[in-house]
UniProtKB/TrEMBL annotation:
<dbReference type="InterPro" id="IPR013767">
    <property type="entry name" value="PAS_fold"/>
</dbReference>
<dbReference type="InterPro" id="IPR001633">
    <property type="entry name" value="EAL_dom"/>
</dbReference>
<keyword id="KW-0472">Membrane</keyword>
<feature type="domain" description="PAS">
    <location>
        <begin position="148"/>
        <end position="222"/>
    </location>
</feature>
<dbReference type="InterPro" id="IPR035965">
    <property type="entry name" value="PAS-like_dom_sf"/>
</dbReference>
<dbReference type="GO" id="GO:0007165">
    <property type="term" value="P:signal transduction"/>
</dbReference>
<dbReference type="InterPro" id="IPR000700">
    <property type="entry name" value="PAS-assoc_C"/>
</dbReference>
<dbReference type="InterPro" id="IPR043128">
    <property type="entry name" value="Rev_trsase/Diguanyl_cyclase"/>
</dbReference>
<feature type="domain" description="HAMP">
    <location>
        <begin position="86"/>
        <end position="137"/>
    </location>
</feature>
<dbReference type="GO" id="GO:0006355">
    <property type="term" value="P:regulation of DNA-templated transcription"/>
</dbReference>
<dbReference type="InterPro" id="IPR029787">
    <property type="entry name" value="Nucleotide_cyclase"/>
</dbReference>
<dbReference type="GO" id="GO:0016020">
    <property type="term" value="C:membrane"/>
</dbReference>
<feature type="transmembrane region" description="Helical">
    <location>
        <begin position="67"/>
        <end position="85"/>
    </location>
</feature>
<dbReference type="Pfam" id="PF00563">
    <property type="entry name" value="EAL"/>
</dbReference>
<dbReference type="InterPro" id="IPR001610">
    <property type="entry name" value="PAC"/>
</dbReference>
<dbReference type="InterPro" id="IPR003660">
    <property type="entry name" value="HAMP_dom"/>
</dbReference>
<keyword id="KW-1133">Transmembrane helix</keyword>
């Protein structure tokens, strides 16, 4: 069978379907081909052809049926809707009317009725109306608040004391308040839309350079700029105002900048107040002169300038003399006026480049720069003092005033400004003490001494702490009984390098400071400890006298120190302690001194008034001070045989001690004759180099065991001469001095007598006594008559000794010296015999001749 084709087709039908539906339905005809093969043979092709006309027609018919059905349903629905709308027309009409009325009256609401949908619509309308009404009410309230805030902001902006300028982001002015208008000179209507740099022109106060506009600084920093000071605003008319300004950005909620606000303050009053306060802080309110604070700055500047100029700078300190009495007499108002007048006179006298400052009270400082010499400074100061000394007229009264001025010169006084003032102050006090109404240049050597004293005070303080001080003891003896009664404890400094330092080198450094009290506590404790040792050795009769420094005696803690020292030595009776005070300590505060002395008496301690007669003690003081002992100062005892004035003082003190019931002790006994005189005057307790020098504690017992009183004291122990016999004692003393002067020449000493006193035995002091007072009073006595040839031989031998020495015949001179010593003894024996004969015969009582 050959290859062929087999075609199968549907039965053709008539096409009744519209072409649009065919395109819309998408139903199309189709053809399918399939090769027919079997056993490897190709039998041809099978073709199946489907026509779409029938399914298209059937689909069209079904669609038409459904459309007819749907149309009927729609018709029914429209009929139902029409009926429903008709029944709800009244409710809808009411809803529309309510809507229209709501636009005018937000309180309008609709009655809910009709169909369920209409009811829902009415309820929705009412709910919407409620929400809209509430929203509108909230908006109204917010608008009201915004309106009030805007009004408040406007009022605030208009009434704020600072100037306010606002700008847009580009820096163009958008608003200004009246203060800003006044400060800038720009009316707001003209300033709006002007660049801020045109309206707000500022310069630096000091340099006058145009300052960076704060808006520009704000844009760079992107933050609020702090207040700028030292700025001046140049107004439109050229006037200037000191201001402070600050700026800040105006931001939206999202952070976008919509402009800037600038606040500027007029600080004219603030500047004026600051200037006033600054002036008051650096000036004296009364005289308008610089005060201490400004002076320090001026002085520092003057020193710095002087370092560059190499000229002289004078720093002076001036104090008005006797200002206080004038101020007290005329009143403080006149005192203030006087200070003003004195200030004006000083300013008239000084140069324009000089500085005059007031430290306070009546003290002024002068700073004179660019001086070429000391003479130039002294000329200015002299002229100034002369001007100040001219009379002042105050409220109809004439006041006289002078000034004392001390000054120093820099760089001759090469030191810092503070020290320059101190040096000028020291020189001023020197001027005052020298008589006032004068100027005085600072003495650098004196200052060096002061500094050296400070160093010595420091060294003494360290020595006290290191235990370098010890006590020496000077004996006090009873010349009448020939026994040791006690010792005066005297402080000595045993320096590691210098050895024993005498008290004159350290005691004055302990004045007016705490060292006096420290030394006093040491002396009290050490002296009482030494008395305890003496008592343990059986020396129970010895007492110890301790010197108490004035500042220690007047200190509030003195009695406590005394009680503490006594408590540490309970085995020492308080009666063994005697305190010695000087007049200055007692007289400074008599009431306090009397109270302390009474407290000491309660403790059983005696007190002595030391150096009596050299100060200001009077009968009144002596009456009010219950001291137990008066000590005659050694300056009177030392020359009592030579100086009638000293003799009168010694006799007066002894008499006062008797009248007031006080014991009396004489210091400074150096020769036996002084002791004899004291005994005859009624004083039998003495101390001095003629008895013993102060000695270390370990030498006291040995000295006391070997000490012997002078024999002449025993002779006159119980005899009191009349003062008319005093020259006899002086003659004995003078004779010994004459012999000593001649013998000293053999040891290289200088002859202390005149040639006439050497050659003429009637010209020496013994000869004067012999020919005058002695002959009138004792001339009838044999002993006296035998003395003249012996005295003449003494003078002849003295001349021979000097002649032999001059010729170099020293051995012969020594032989004659021994002979002269024998003659001296014979003269002294004659004088002693004369004294005994006076005692025996009582020449002073009945046979004495007129003196």
């Amino acid at each position: 069978m050959g290859r062929g084709q087999l075609i199968a087709k549907t039965v053709p039908t008539t096409q009744t379907v519209p072409s649009w539906f065919i395109r819309l339905s998408g139903i199309k005809g189709c053809e399918h081909r399939q090769q027919v093969q079997s056993g490897g043979a190709d039998y041809g092709e099978l073709i199946l052809h489907c026509d779409a006309t029938l399914p298209q027609t059937e689909t069209w018919q079904r669609a038409l049926n459904r459309v007819a059905t749907l149309g009927g349903v729609i018709m029914v629905l429209f009929i139902i809707l029409a009926l429903t709308l008709r029944t709800s027309l009244v409710a809808l009409t009411q809803l529309v009317d309510a809507y229209r009325r709501f636009l005018k009256d937000h309180h309008t609401r609709v009655a809910v009725g009709g169909a369920r949908e209409i009811q829902q619509l009415g309820s929705a309308f009412n709910a919407m109306a409620d929400e809209v009404e509430a929203t509108l009410k909230a908006l109204a309230e917010a608008q009201g608040r915004l309106q009030k805030e805007a009004e408040l902001n406007h009022v605030t902006l208009m009434s704020i004391g600072d100037g306010v300028i606002t700008t847009d982001p580009a820096g163009l002015v958008t608003q200004m308040n009246p203060v800003a208008e006044q400060l800038t000179g720009w009316p707001v209507m003209e300033a709006v839309q002007q660049p801020l740099t045109e309206v707000f022109h500022i310069v630096q106060e000091g340099t006058r350079e145009t300052a960076i506009n704060p808006i520009f600084r704000l844009a760079e920093a992107n933050t609020v700029t702090a207040l700028e000071t030292h700025m001046r605003l140049i107004a439109r008319d050229g006037s200037e105002t000191p201001i402070e300004d600050s700026a800040a950005p105006i931001l939206r909620e999202n952070g976008d900048i919509i402009g800037y606000v600038l606040v500027l303050s007029d600080v004219s009053e603030k500047k004026a107040l600051q200037k006033k306060i600054g002036w008051q802080a650096t000036h004296d309110a009364l005289t308008k002169l610089p005060n201490r604070a400004l002076l320090a700055d001026r002085l520092n500047q003057a020193v710095a300038r002087n370092d560059r100029s190499q000229l002289l700078l004078a720093v002076g300190l001036l104090d008005l003399d006797e200002f206080k009495p004038v101020n007290d007499r005329l009143g403080h108002a006149c005192g203030d006026q006087l200070l003003k007048l004195a200030t004006a006179r000083m300013l008239e006298t000084l140069r324009a480049t000089d500085t005059l400052a007031r430290l306070g009270g009546d003290e002024f400082v002068l700073v004179l720069s660019d001086l070429t010499s000391l003479d130039e400074a002294e000329t200015i100061f002299g002229r100034l003092l002369d001007r100040l000394a001219e009379p002042y007229t105050l409220d109809g009264e004439v006041a006289q005033l002078t000034a004392s001025l001390g000054f120093t010169l820099y760089p001759l006084d090469q030191t810092d400004p503070d020290t320059l003032l101190r040096h000028a102050d020291e020189a001023m006090y020197t001027a005052k003490h020298s008589g006032r109404n004068r100027y005085q240049l600072f003495d650098a050597q004196h200052d060096q001494k002061r500094q050296a004293r400070q160093e010595q005070t420091k060294e003494i303080r360290l020595a006290l702490a290191a235990g370098e001080f010890e006590l020496f003891y000077q004996p006090k003896v009873d010349m009448r009984q020939g026994r040791v009664t006690g010792f005066e404890a005297l402080a000595r400094w045993r320096h590691p390098q210098r050895g024993i330092v005498p008290p004159g080198e350290f005691l004055h450094h302990m004045e007016d400071n705490e060292l006096g009290s420290k030394l006093g506590r040491f002396v009290l404790d050490t002296a009482l400890g030494r008395v305890a040792e003496w008592r343990r050795a059986g020396l129970n009769d010895w007492s110890v006298a301790v010197n108490i420094a004035p500042q220690h005696f007047t200190a509030p803690h003195f009695l406590d120190d005394l009680k503490d020292a006594i408590a540490r030595h309970p085995d020492v009776p308080p009666q063994c302690l005697e305190l010695e005070i000087v007049e200055s300590a007692a007289i400074a505060d008599l009431h306090h001194a009397a109270r302390v002395i009474a407290a000491c008496h309660e403790l059983g301690i005696r007190l002595a008034l030391d150096d009596f007669g050299v100060g200001y003690a009077s009968l009144s003081y002596l009456k009010r001070l219950p001291v137990d002992v008066l000590k005659i100062d050694q300056s009177f005892v030392r020359d009592v045989l030579d100086d009638p004035g000293d003799l009168a003082v010694v006799e007066a003190v002894i008499t006062l001690s008797t009248l007031f019931g006080r014991d009396v002790v004489a210091e400074g006994v150096e020769v036996a004759e002084q002791g004899v005189l004291l005994l005859r005057l009624g004083c039998h307790i003495a101390q001095g180099y003629g008895i013993a020098r102060p000695m270390p504690a370990d030498e006291v017992a040995g000295w006391a065991a070997t000490w012997q009183p002078d024999p002449s004291w025993a002779l006159w122990a119980n005899t009191q001469w009349e003062m008319s016999d005093f020259p006899l004692l002086v003659a004995q003393y003078d004779h010994q001095r004459w012999i000593k002067s001649v013998l000293n020449t053999l040891d290289g000493g200088r002859l202390s007598i005149t040639q006439q006193e050497l050659t003429n035995h009637r010209a020496c002091r013994l000869g004067h006594w012999y020919e005058n007072h002695g002959r009138r009073r004792y001339g009838h006595l044999t002993t006296f008559q035998e003395m003249e040839p012996l005295h003449a031989e003494v003078h002849r031998t003295g001349q021979e000794i000097l002649q032999l020495k001059a010729e170099g015949r020293l051995a012969e001179a020594e032989t004659q010296a021994r002979y002269l010593t024998e003659l001296k003894t014979r003269i002294l024996d004659s004088l002693a015999s004369l004294q005994r004969e006076v005692m025996r015969t009582g020449v002073g009582a009945g046979k004495n001749l007129p003196a």
